[in-house]
Amino acid sequence: MRWRYPWLILLPLLLLAALFLLQGPAWGNGYLLSRRLWRLGAMLLAALCVALSSIVFQTLSGNRVLSPAVMGYEAAYGLGQALMVLVGGALGVVQPGMAGGFLLSLGWVLGYAWLLQRWLGRASLRLEQYLLLGLVLGMVMDTFAQFARFGASPGEFAVLQGLTYSSFNRVTPQALLYAAAPVALAALWLYRRRAELDVLLLGREQATALGVDYLRCQRRYLALAAVLAAICTSLVGPTAFMGVLVANLAYAIAGSSRHTLTMPLGSALALLLFLLAQWLVEHVFNYRTTVGILVNLLCGVYLLALLLRRKGFA
Questions:
Q1: Which of 191, 198, 304, 314 could connect to 310 by a Cys-Cys bridge, CB 3.0–4.6 Å?
Q2: Where does residue 281 fall: left (phi above 0), alpha (psi -120 to 50 degrees), or beta otherwise?
Q3: Which domains does the chain have, with CATH numbers?
């Protein structure tokens, strides 16, 4: 099964990308054009991370209103940033450079994800219990992060506030190169395993009956979703429930849940949304808002509509 009209997504995507790169003084200015190319690369990596991690996570959980954000990865990122500012002041985040900050944040979030995975294996938790554990730990870390902000000076608080929103302006070429290789490998590996993901979509009993080691696959794909979520959060900041939006739009447009269609389509939709939000921030709102605020507003409204339209399983 193939989606018949890919140009309906590709054409607006290419037009928005060209508009983002060439509009204004960037035309003929090599420095500005290179800066926008790096930001476009950051959008591409973030789009892949958001779409792939959310689609895989929804496949495993069997619920289309969930995303990896429910596991507390973004709360772990916020707590890590708050602790760095609390210990080292504003320079605790700024001084190492954006690439150093990216690696520190990535290590912190991956450490939290590894602890969750270890807990899942040792305690033999069911997936529902695992999700509940992540939700509770995320709330606890949010509370500690807010407590840490109480001791921050106004300058430090401003730094922390800026890090709580997704932004492509603070991404450096070095950080982008660090993130590109693992994201590309994860995307290729997931696409090659798309048939196995289709089987997992049938549920534990049916997948086991078809010869799939369900528990092993579950832990492996949960770990990969955690890695993608950690890279995205550490690179551009929290994206909240954007994955719910792009995944459900991909299901609706493709008319299927097959990963051959939904993974590339979801990635294209995420990139389209990022480009549109960035263009609105620059040319409509004149930088009076951020990409994260616009994306979270749209995704929040969509999630609420989804919950109201489909009571129960979505």
A1: 314
A2: alpha
A3: 7-14+36-309 (1.10.3470.10)
